[in-house]
Design a protein that fits this description.
Elements (H helix, E strand, L loop, with lengths): L2 E3 L4 E3 L4 H28 L3 H27 L21 H9 L30
Antiparallel strand pairs: 1-2
GO biological process, one term: protein targeting to membrane
Organism: Euplotes crassus
Membrane topology: Multi-pass membrane protein
C-alpha cells in the first residue's frame, strides 16, 4: 500500500497506481481547460461569480499539481510515498523505463487509458534489483 486517498476513497498501491496517476493528471487537465475557457469569457464580460470561482479553484489546482509532481518524482525510483521517507534505495527499481512499464504496462498505446493490467504476480512477488540492496 502506498497511501489512503480520500478523493478516491481507496488506498493507492500496486494494483491501482496507474489509475491514481491518470485520475490526478486528468483532473488537472480538466481544471486547466476550464480556466482557459473561462478566462476568455472573463476578459469579455466581468462576472463577479467567475472571479470568485477562479480564486477558489487556483489553490485546489496547486494542491493537486503538488500531488502529481510528487508521484511523478517517485515512480522513476519505483518508490511509494511511504517508502520515500526512508533513506535507503528502493530494491525494486530497475530504471525509469522499466519502472514506467511496471506501472503503466508494456503496451504504450494503453498508457493514457485507465485499464487494468493483468499481472500473474498479483502484487505479492516483485523482482529485486541486487544493485540496490543495502
Amino acid at each position: 500500500m502506498d497511501h489512503h486517498c480520500g478523493w478516491i476513497s481507496n488506498c493507492v498501491g500496486y494494483r491501482n497506481q496507474k489509475s491514481f496517476l491518470l485520475y490526478v493528471f486528468y483532473y488537472i487537465a480538466c481544471i486547466i481547460l476550464f480556466l482557459a475557457i473561462s478566462i476568455q469569457m472573463l476578459l469579455k464580460f466581468i462576472y463577479v461569480w467567475l472571479i470568485i470561482l477562479h480564486i477558489l479553484i487556483l489553490p485546489i489546482l496547486l494542491m493537486v499539481l503538488r500531488v502529481l509532481i510528487n508521484q511523478l518524482c517517485l515512480f522513476p525510483f519505483n518508490l511509494t510515498t511511504i517508502e520515500s521517507l526512508s533513506t535507503q534505495k528502493s530494491p525494486f527499481s530497475f530504471g525509469c523505463c522499466s519502472n514506467l512499464k511496471e506501472i503503466f504496462g508494456t503496451k504504450w498505446y494503453l498508457w493514457p487509458i485507465p485499464t487494468y493490467i493483468n499481472d500473474p504476480k498479483k502484487g505479492f512477488h516483485f523482482k529485486i534489483n541486487p544493485k540496490n540492496l543495502p
